[in-house]
Amino acid sequence: MTPILAIDDATLNYGSRRLWSHLDLTVRPGEFVAVLGANGSGKTSLLRVLLGRQRLTSGTVTIAGRPAHRGSKDIGYVPQQRRIDTLTPLRARDLVGLGLDGHRWGLNLPGGGRRRRIDAVLGKVGADAYADRPVWLLSGGEQQRVRIAQALVAEPALLLCDEPLLSLDPRSQQEVTALVDERRRAEGTAVLFVTHEINPVLPYADRVLWLADGRFRIGTVDEVLTSEVLSEMYRTQVDVIRTGDRVLVAGLPDPAHFS
Ligand SMILES: Nc1ncnc2c1ncn2[C@@H]1O[C@H](COP(=O)(O)OP(=O)(O)OP(=O)(O)O)[C@@H](O)[C@H]1O
């Protein structure tokens, strides 16, 4: 199967600081890749590279066979964001519409197609009940569903989610992750899912990319989430403890940010 994303021997430096180097990653349609790592390890920067907003120091990235570039129609993006608290007049359906026509209002697909597309995607993410409500009135979990709908409305082949579980309660985290999983299974959308919440993604992640101190590991959950692998990456003793279907990582230099 042709990969939707191919990262080949990629290195990213900011000045003299190396975020990661010689990164190779190929993602197939429908694959769910969790991107984990401490604060500042370069997860968002990786997404920025894929979005064409950050140049690699060396190496290449192709998306659907073409070099990464700004405004790619192949990518849906859920940026890292907290609650929408301002008194924005936007309704949920308006926010989703921005995923079709950006900030240019009023693009009409023929025959009311625009509205149908928006309604369909709102239905798919289970947000139809609050489609006409102002977004700032929605709960964190509801807002996140709407943001995902916005990222999916143009039917991208690759979905990039940056911390979509941030400040959600455990139940909403579970629901949002399941929603993304449903999409990739139904439509073959490939997913890169940046998160500090390990447990909600465990049931879904086909592979994990773990970034740490300029190093990285890619593999299945069982291959990467081991005491040996993480201890080696962080150059300190890290313990991975499995209890039932949950995993606990102890001893990380940045423990507050993983659960
Ligand atoms: N344009 C830039 N120029 C220089 N340094 C940058 C730039 N963008 C990010 N950085 C730095 O690079 C490091 C990695 O940032 P990045 O946002 O990619 O990390 P992250 O893994 O997503 O972190 P977090 O989990 O906190 O969101 C940080 O220390 C950040 O300050």
UniProtKB/TrEMBL annotation:
SUPFAM superfamilies: P-loop containing nucleoside triphosphate hydrolases (SSF52540). SMART domains: AAA. Pfam families: ABC_tran. It comes from the Bacteria. Keywords: ATP-binding, Nucleotide-binding, Transport. Residues 5-238 form the ABC transporter domain. GO terms for molecular function: ATP binding; ATP hydrolysis activity. Transmembrane segments: none annotated. PROSITE patterns: ABC_TRANSPORTER_1, ABC_TRANSPORTER_2. Belongs to the ABC transporter superfamily. This is ABC transporter ATP-binding protein. It comes from Paractinoplanes tereljensis.
